[in-house]
Amino acid sequence: MDLKSGYPFWLVKNGLPYDYAKLESSVKTDIVILGGGVSGALTAYYLVKAGLDVTVIDARSIGLGSTCASTALLQYEIDTPLHELIEKIGTNGAVRSYELCSYAIDRIESITQKLGYKDFQRKKSLLFTAHKKDIPFLQKEYAVRKEHGFKVKYLENDVVNKNYGFNADAILSQQGAQIDAYTFTHALHQQSKKKGLRIFDRTPITDIQHHDKNVTLKTENGHTIQAKKIIYATGYEVVNFLDKKVVDLQSTYAVVSEQNNSMKECWKDDVLMWNTADPYLYMRTTSDRRMLIGGRDEDFYNPTRRDKLIDSKTKQLIKDFNNLYPDKPFKPEFSWTGTFGITKDGLPFIGTYKKLPNSYFALGFGGNGITFSLIAAEIITDLITGKKNKDAEIFSFERV
Dihedral sign, CA of 268, 117, 74, 299? Predict the structure, then answer.
């Protein structure tokens, strides 16, 4: 599946920072991870740390799927608002999902510090109303988050206007961050390689056979990978492996401005921003003083149709930005589109899938793909090493 098109900023900025081998012989391994993007990289990092023999296989060059197209806003807020998620799955599961995403931000920061990785920044997050009619919705969401202990502040229109320069009510969250998912993925792999991880890219898999005690994969070149367990970390391409529909595919669009080194900050505290529209508009800055705008999502039909919309969507996103900041110049430099998935409850699918023996899935769908990937890495590592994980059932396939 063609997961992205255009010129993703982080890919252009960083190029191909490391070389990985193509698989040229048959191998045996304890665990094979299908997919070398951020989900596969985090899972491999945890499993190697647990002392397991792990091999990562990717059909592309590492990180060239959804990972390099990710806009990488790290938020504990799930695409499904907390008060709506409570109605869907109950209070305990909903609140715990939000708590886990908050924990994941802290844990990712800890990992970056251990790696010596620099492109992680703590940020506050601002959810603002797209229309006045959204105020009751926002007030309800604020009350529920406040009730369950999340560090939030409700900002009325005059405060938002004074601090951020546009008219809206908003929820300001203290917990948030941003990262470069592409280089973070490579940093994870480089560290894991030192501990024995084998990584092969440009190695398409043509056949997977699940047996009672192991799994056999065949590559495009006829080589065999035999593993005790397989982890599917292929993101939205998982639709090729499951016999039931668990995700709807959509396309999102993003544009990054030219650098503006004369601006100390693009807006107050360079907070992460997103609004209550459906689909929602989201904005962040980059470490080299650029502004990023994303949104204008469309149902995914085919890559050709999706890609033809890049120019028009870029213009629409800039107009959305100018509606908020008519006096702030935004000169576009990079635009792209990427495919993402949405589930009925906004939660990922993590864990075993009974119809495929010896398989595990790390599928971080939605806008929280990176934080969901961290959660998946911890849950799957617990399951494989025989530890109980009380959170596994929240994200299991059995919930649908």
Answer: positive
d(C-alpha 127, C-alpha 119), whole Å: 24
If you compute the radius of gyration of the chain from its CA atoms, what whole number of angstroms results?
A: 21
The pLDDT, as a whole number, for residue 2 is 47
Q: How far apart are CA 273 and CA 283, in angstroms?
A: 5
175 contacts: CB under 8 Å, gap ≥ 6: 75, 76, 102, 105, 125, 150, 151
> What pLDDT score was predicted for residue 242?
73
**Whether 41 contacts 188, CB under 8 Å:** yes
Please report the pLDDT score of residue 243 as a whole number: 65
Instruction: Report how far residue 163's alpha carbon sits from residue 135's, in angstroms, rounded to the nearest whole number.
Output: 18
Look up the pTM and report it.
Answer: 0.95
Q: Residue 289: give the domain boundaries.
A: 248-268+277-342
Give 185-215 pLDDT, tens digit per residue.
999 999 999 999 999 999 999 999 999 999 9
pLDDT per position as a tens digit, 330-375: 999 999 998 888 889 999 999 999 899 999 999 888 788 999 999 9
Element (H, E) at 96: helix 91-115
Report how many domains make up the chain. 2
Q: Is 258 in the same domain as 310?
A: yes
Secondary structure E strands in the chain:
4-6, 27-34, 54-57, 73-75, 120-122, 125-128, 152-155, 170-173, 176-179, 198-200, 205-210, 215-219, 224-232, 248-257, 272-275, 282-285, 291-299, 332-342, 349-352, 359-363
Amino acid in the structure at residue 219:
T
Nearest to 6, CA basis, from 253, 208, 212, 281: 253
User: Percent helix, strand and coil across the chain, each rounded to 5?
Assistant: 35, 25, 35
Low pLDDT (below 70) residues in the chain? 1-5, 236, 239-240, 243-244, 301
29 within 8 A of 263, measured Cβ to Cβ: no
Task: Examine the fold and report which residue of 297, 315, 342 is the final residue of a domain before the chain moves on.
Answer: 342
CA distance 353 to 395: 12
